[in-house]
Design brief:
- The chain is α+β, with helices and mostly antiparallel strands and 422 residues long.
- It has 4 domains: 41 residues; 194 residues, 3-hydroxy-3-methylglutaryl-coenzyme A Reductase, Chain A, domain 2, CATH 3.90.770.10; 104 residues, Hydroxymethylglutaryl-CoA reductase, class I/II, NAD/NADP-binding domain (Alpha-Beta Plaits); 49 residues, Helicase, Ruva Protein, domain 3, CATH 1.10.8.
- It is built from 17 helices and 10 strands.
- Helix 6 packs antiparallel against helix 8, helix 10 packs across helix 11 and helix 16 packs across helix 17.
- It is globular, with a radius of gyration of 25 Å.
- It starts with 13 loop residues before the first helix and ends with a helix.
- The relative contact order is 0.13.
């Protein structure tokens, strides 16, 4: 009988792990060989990045063009499996150029480390005592990462919150850590753990959680752009986009899809550069609900000339040093293509991509409908799934697009007709 209970799986070498998976999942020799083809990421490097490695997976890496941000041109690497995303970002950026491109700004790269204290009968007294000892707490935390401090980073301040919970009052101390050009999780977690015993001594409570928060609302990136009405389809297009945005503003069901469109661009850039997509997604969506109602990450309005003006603000906890950004060769190349010099600049570029992506989606939805362009690009995927290869992929896709019928059953019929006529 098959079982996934395996003793010492992590101790096995890669070949033995793959042999086990082959037998368990009844993989063919061809499928196992595919797993062994790791491309630019050496299998031994992959084996040190995560646990229980048997291979790697690849996604298409595309380049979004036309981005003019703060007067500088950028090429944007995007790793994603979904058709039309890279094309939409490029098109949105092209239209933004006509209005001067994207203007961005950001806060300092400050992350929050949380230390949870429980079992305190007088939590507000503990809060005051912790704040009184702020300098001692900051000094202790910063002693754990002198390199970061030498680069101008480190803990800059603390905050203390009291939570009234069913399990009693909890005192939550926030370390506000300037992470400079790193995402900062390792540094922040180390600092949080290091000050926990001191906080226990000061408060008389027990420290439980000591970890970074991914609601990075101290580390915000912003972008804005003007989309001229004569470029995007006239006054009617502007009004329809505003109608679509307003629905997202008042309807969380629509807001979820609205923000998914933003994150199509954001997450693709984050993934291409070896940054943490889960952290960015969690931070963005929690920030969208920070006032108690889930809202769009972007804002759209009409200026006095009747042009469409878009803006975005979201937490962007990304780094250009440390982690996979320095171990994955494609991540390193992607960062080189971007040409960003600091994590702050990188975050601002990401915000501009998110705004461009959202504009492109709203314009398509409000005018021709989202499926037309998306399905035309998706037709090639359908052709491949139907078994088409080489030039036949484009032939099958082209016929389906002309017919307006983009389904795998039709793709198979077209492929059979092409092969019969060879």
């Amino acid at each position: 009988m098959k079982t996934s209970r395996v003793s010492g799986f992590y101790k096995m070498d890669i070949e033995k792990r793959l042999d086990f998976v082959r037998e368990f999942a009844e993989l063919t020799d061809e499928e196992c060989e595919m797993l062994k083809k790791t491309g630019a990421l050496d299998i031994q490097v992959a084996d040190r990045m995560i646990e229980n490695v048997v291979g790697t997976t690849e996604l298409p890496l595309g380049i979004a063009v036309n981005f003019l941000i703060n007067g500088r041109d950028y090429l944007i690497p995007m790793a994603i499996e979904e058709p039309s995303v890279v094309a939409a970002a490029s098109n949105g950026a092209k239209m933004a150029r006509e209005g001067g491109g994207f203007i961005t700004s950001s806060t300092d790269p400050v992350m929050i480390g949380q230390i949870q204290l429980v079992g305190i009968p007088d939590p507000f007294r503990a809060k005051m005592d912790i704040l009184k000892a702020k300098d001692e707490i900051i000094e202790l935390a910063n002693s754990k990462d002198p390199v970061l401090v030498n680069f101008g980073g480190g803990v800059k301040d603390i905050e203390v919150r009291v939570l009234d919970t069913p399990r009693g009052g909890m005192v939550i101390t926030h370390l506000l850590v300037d992470c400079r050009d790193a995402m900062g999780a390792n540094a922040v977690n180390t600092m949080a753990e290091s000050v926990a015993p001191l906080l226990e001594e000061i408060s008389g409570g027990k420290a439980v959680l000591r970890i970074i928060s991914n609601l990075a609302d101290k580390r915000l990136a912003r972008a804005t752009a003007v989309f001229r009405k004569d470029v995007i389809g006239g006054e009617e297009a502007v009004d329809r986009i505003l109608d679509a945005y307003t629905m997202a503003l008042f309807d969380p069901y629509r807001a979820a899809t609205h923000n998914k469109g933003v994150m199509n661009g954001v997450s693709a850039v984050v993934l291409a550069t070896g940054n943490d997509t889960r952290a960015i997604e969690a931070g963005a969506h929690s920030y969208a609900a920070s006032d108690g109602w889930y809202r769009p990450l972007t804002h759209w309005e009409k200026n006095k000339e009747g042009n469409l003006v878009g803006s975005i603000e979201l937490p962007v906890a990304v780094g250009i040093v440390g982690g996979a950004t320095r171990t994955h060769p494609i991540a390193q190349i992607s960062l080189k293509i971007l040409g960003v010099k600091t994590a702050k600049e990188f975050g601002e570029v990401i915000a501009a991509v998110g705004l461009a992506q959202n504009f492109a989606a709203l314009r398509a939805l409000a005018t021709e409908g989202i499926q037309r362009g998306h399905m035309e690009l998706h037709a090639r995927n359908i052709a491949i799934a139907a078994g088409a290869e080489g030039e036949n992929i484009d032939k099958v896709a082209e016929i389906m697009v002309k017919e307006g019928v983009i389904r795998i059953d039709r793709a198979k019929e077209i492929l059979r007709e092409i092969e019969r006529n060879l």
